[in-house]
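Q: I have 161 residues here and want to know how they pack in 3D. Can you give me a structure?
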Amino acid sequence: MTSYITPVTTSADSGALFSCVVSNVAGSVTSANAMLTVQRDYRRQDSLALVAFYNSTGGPNWINKSNWLTTQPIDTWYGVFMNGNRVNEIAIIVENNLNGVLPSEIGNLTNLWNLNITGQKLLQGQIPKEIGNLTNLEHLYLMNCSITGKIPRSHFIISTL
């Protein structure tokens, strides 16, 4: 099977039939109709969630903010780890001056299996209910932070914890 990059498509285009024209030195050949499958752009979704995390936790004042909000690949951002094209781990385990709250967008990191934010005494507020969207989450560490309140009910539907 061969893959081709198409012009901008949306999920509404998924399942549509398109005719493919292939040109080479021998001429043009039109194929029979082919089904289009549109894959979601998870890398964009993950990067937007990370930007929200950075902004809501005082990113400009972090001690180590290496590569955050730069053109460098996401997996080079301090504390961010990826598996394939998805963020699967955030580990900020030494005092880094995070100051603020965990944003609801953290729930958009749907491939996250490890969220380890420790020693961030200025990280406050409550765990957002959107954490329940993280169905792959196996490890949740929020130690030595100032997070208060009850663990959201959505957290209990995560079968991997």
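Q: Anything worth noting?
A: The radius of gyration is 20 Å. The mean pLDDT is 83.
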